[in-house]
Input
Amino acid sequence: MHGLKTVFLSGTTIFLGFAASLVQAQTSITIATVNNDDMVRMQALSANFTDANPDIKLNWVTLDENVLRQRVTTAIATNSGRFDVVTIGTYEVPIWAERGWLVPLDDMPEEYDIDDILPSIRSGLSIMGVLHAAPFYGESSFTMYRTDLFDEAGLEMPAAPSWDFIKEAAAAITDKSNEVYGICLRGKPGWGENVAFLTAMANSYGARWFDENWQPQFDSDAWANTLNDYLMLLNNYGPPDAALNGYNENLALFQDGKCGIWIDATVAASSLTNASQSRVSDSVGFALAPDNGLGKRSNWLWAWALAISAGSENQDAARRFVAWATSGEFTEFIAAREGWANVPPGTRASLYTNDEYLDAAPFAEMTLASIQAADPNDPTVAKVPYTGIQFVAIPEFQSIGTAVGHRFAKSLEGSISSEEALANAQWVTSKVMERARFLKE
Amino acid sequence: MTDTIRDPNSNIADIDDEQLPVPEHRLHGPVHFLGLYGAEHVAATEFVIGAAFVAMGATIKDILIGLFIGNLLAALSFWLITAPIAVKTRLSLYTYIEQNLGELASRLYNGANVLIFVAISAAMITVSATAVRVLFEIPPQIYPYPTNIYFALIAGSASVIAVAVAYYGFNVVAEFATICTPWLMVMFTAGGMVLIPSLNEALTGYTTLASFSDFVSLAGTTVFTGINAEGRPGIGLWEVIGFAWAANTFAHFGLIDMALLRYAKKSVYGLCTVTGMMFGHYVAWISAALMGAATASIMKLSIAVVSPGDVAYYALGATGFVIVIIAGWTTANPNLYRAGLAAQAVFPEIPRQKVTLAVGAVVVVASCFPFIYRSILPILAYAGLVLVPIGGVVFAEQHIFPRLGYKSNWHRLKGVSNNKPALITWAVCLVFGFGLDSLDVIPFVYLFLPTWVVSIICYTVLAKPAGADKSYPEAEQREQEFDSKVKAYHARLATQESHAPVKDTSLLTTLIRAVWIVIGLLVPFVLAWRVLFNSPNLYDYYVNRELFYDLTIWCTLIYFVFAWWDLQRGKGLSSNQVTAEVVPAS
Output
């Protein structure tokens, strides 16, 4: 009996001592993340990090994109330290970094190989040349088209097409009686939907949201040309009810063989070339987004990135996690577990020299070229006071963009003219900016 | 001093009205109190308190239920605690203390009041300054201290002006405040309505709400999330109830509102406080919180740091500046005045100007620090804790002592200068209350309850050996004589003073009222309604909102011109009637 008691006490002592040492040594970090596939996958694989870093415990807060924005903004603006690591996009990074809410990532470990990050992505996540968020996933936009329809029409898509060629090709391959529409573009209203596309398109037409004095420019000829061409393309060669179509709707149309040309996010390419998802997987071609001969293409740039809150009390642990989650090693780890087709693309140059990835992703070279062609710090033909290609990196843009998007969608529906839509866009942008600048920090 | 005031040989007409019970002919009916409390509790503080509940991390369910229960408890406290004593004594608490608790208690009590009123005044001036800072392109003040010298200058200058106005023009501002209430109620409601679509769009992508459950869902996800500003689980139902109840502790359990309710014909009119509690402390707080959250979303800032000026500007456009400045000043003005009076009572030997200037100087400095206005809810709760023991002492004298056969006015009858049991009780209760707070046994918002109970027990126990259970036949005889003389004086006064309400049914007055009601109040409300219910997308929302902004500022101007005109006409008619009645009598 005595022996049993001794064994029990000794065991308890050892267990408590072990547990205490673990508790004492562990640092907990809280990660706020968006509930998209890539981020959910990262969370599922995070044991790889904690196994290698037993002194760090990860707490995940996974939220819908809009709720995440609101919660993270509140937490980070009050310097509360509630979230150590936050998932944010290229839209937020310049705004938040400027406010001092993010920890500069200028001392990442040497093995992180910061120079491997694609320059345009790095530039979109940097302020004054200093990285403030590490990219987990990056994308641009490009032209996706049906090679079989082009062959039938005797057309050849240039690697870098112009808008004139797109108009000509869309007209040539449209066959509405067989539900084949020459072109599909985003028509659904929203700052991340039709406005993202039209802003990027407008850049290639020499248009811009604001001049250097923050005066809205929707009354310019360049914007009129942009919107008129967009309306002409969709009205003449687009699918019915184009104003209802966003990214997902157009993806479904293309996969179903109903789109001849689709200019949209590079991330769509893997879904179009996947035979289990797409009826036209063996006849999809890729080219750069169109231009108008003015020196700017209509491709955009977006990245989801991990940033460290300035209020975090565990910045070292947070930095180690961010370095792991956005490293080349993690990409290889995902590839080993889930295949190369499932690795988050668009962030590191080394991925695009990897033969296995290039084999799994036939669109990879064009994706890389599109990302490289995007410069968020110089998005337009004329000079502008803002950064961002398909958005303007100012807090007011989300609401202005959505309001403007509604007028453009109305004009696509035929409820109002393009002149009226542009006049409305000019009015609403002026009003919101007037009020926002009035309360300028 | 006590003997002099209630000396039956003195000429009652020479005694300051404040020292005498309210005469019966000056008593008011329930409508007066419904309006009065509606006005008292819709102020600039509501902008701050609404946001404070968000920063403290309450959930929407706790807010909807907790604020209802807490404010109901507050209204019941006014009815069951404050009003019966006020109606029984017909005195203000200050007079009661002076006559029954002695000079030292009166001085200490007034000293505590100076601090509280200075804090409230400073907070309200800072709130006004947050609106003015926008006009001078000064950055938002997101830290507890001023980070911009010009903000400090603006807040300081606003304080200097407010002190001067309180000193020289108190009556004008007080009069102006009376016409603000209906407008403030409409604007607080309209502000929330105008910003709900924007908030909803930021979260769901839609500007419209289909049902009340949509509203609850929106408010629960974006405003009352259950997570506080530090990122931890926030306050629960009990705390919300406590905050709502404790926000006016000094007025109900602390009995400060005896000053108002002593004019009530019946103690049941204490329930009329429900207008202030359920509109100002329910609708306005929730509306202010929604406005704060929407502004934070627009500005990409946290609600914990957006200023009332920014919130009001986004909710109401240019009218927002007007509401913040007016609501701030009309709240600061009486509190500054009260602070000055209380300070004079503390230092009666120092000239009034010097005391007022000293109080003003403290307000000027305090108003530069944004943390005071951001901490207004805890300040109010702790203020209640400081003052509630005196409420307990008075409650014991008025309700417990008669049942035990003690004399309610034993101290005055005994003729000693200081009521030592009351002073000791207060000291014991402060140690008890703040000691309990430091032990963190119960939420600080509920500390007033055990402290109040302790004050009643302590005072009852201490008063007996001090002479509360004794008889003082001579002094009681004097008191009765004095009371008889006061009754006779009031009866005389009643024949001289007009007490019938003046009804103005002239066409001009009807037109004036129609203008300020329809154009000043109804039009902005309808415009806000359109923004909320007729904005199917963000563009239409901006169109409707701009129309609301552009017209409401003119409606506001028209409202104040016509409401002021109406007020002055009413006053003119009343004074004419008094003159007409008094002249033949004389």
About this structure: Chain A has two domains: 25-132+302-359, 140-300+374-438. The CA atoms of residues 206 and 381 of chain A lie 5 Å apart.
